[in-house]
């Protein structure tokens, strides 16, 4: 049975986590279905943006630990490639990081553990007044996952990231809003519509190839160590986009005072503006590292 429902309407693919009886608790099956859905969204030019939400009264209440600690680590199901065991939440967030379409979270209720960390590589997060968040890993005897030690400080700053991660407390949508974790807070009945409206605004007014490139530029430059790296990427992207049919249409539609109809497609016309970039390779420690003596 599918645990992620998909719907494509007006250019917006809505992904709904669909285990309401379990508060949409995260499983390996859910991870794989979400990854597959993002693959479909990237390949389909009819998809202009993606919205992720939950069925029922929760967004995602964290890992499904009904079977004990194997809800955190299931060795057999988390093997990839050459047999390396990897964090399932991290596999999902890395895939979202690579998305060519903007991703918006509509957080309709409890978002705890991986329910909170899976949102971090999404581009915008909207929350219901009923939403609750919690980075509760220390309270379960584990540590933050899903690459959240990279994402969370970049979204809300190191001090707030440390506060939430070391206290493990549950906090409400207003605190999430004040810290910049979410963009806006809505009445429950209005949340999904607001998220889809924002997604439609992106799709209706912007060239899809430009949006895909912009998303790559913004996320990848978070890790750059000097603005010169951004300047190189910007310069190549501007050169290629200026010569595109999209740019000609953008100028023509502006002067003719009409909506643009951009011809270029993400599936066939996306240029490589990162010719020397590749994701770091996974390296598995050959043995469990020993604790080192602190520097003195």
In a few lines, what is going on in this structure?
The chain has eleven helices and twelve strands. It has two domains: 4-202, Alpha-Beta Complex (2-enoyl-CoA Hydratase, Chain A, domain 1), CATH 3.90.226; 206-269, Lyase 2-enoyl-coa Hydratase, Chain  A, domain 2 (Orthogonal Bundle), CATH 1.10.12.10.
Task: Walk me through what this model shows.
The chain has 296 residues and is an alpha/beta fold. The protein folds into two domains: 4-202, 2-enoyl-CoA Hydratase, Chain A, domain 1, CATH 3.90.226.10; 206-269, Orthogonal Bundle (Lyase 2-enoyl-coa Hydratase, Chain  A, domain 2). It is 39% helix and 16% strand. The chain contains eleven helices and twelve strands. The chain has a six-stranded mixed β-sheet, with helices on both faces. A four-stranded mixed β-sheet has the order 4-8-10-11. Helix 4 (148-156) packs across helix 5 and helix 8 (208-221) packs antiparallel against helix 9 (227-242). The longest helix is centred in the first third of the chain and has 16 residues, at 28-43. The protein is globular and about 60 Å long.
| Span of the ends, CA to CA | 56 Å
What is the CATH third-level topology name of the largest domain?
2-enoyl-CoA Hydratase, Chain A, domain 1
Give the H and E element order.
Answer: EEHEEEEHEEHEEHHEHEHHHHH
User: What is the strand tally?
Assistant: 12
Computed over alpha carbons, the radius of gyration is 20 Å
Please give the CATH class of the largest domain.
Answer: Alpha Beta
Main sheet: which strands, in order across? 1-2-3-7-9-12
Which CATH architecture of the largest domain? Answer: Alpha-Beta Complex
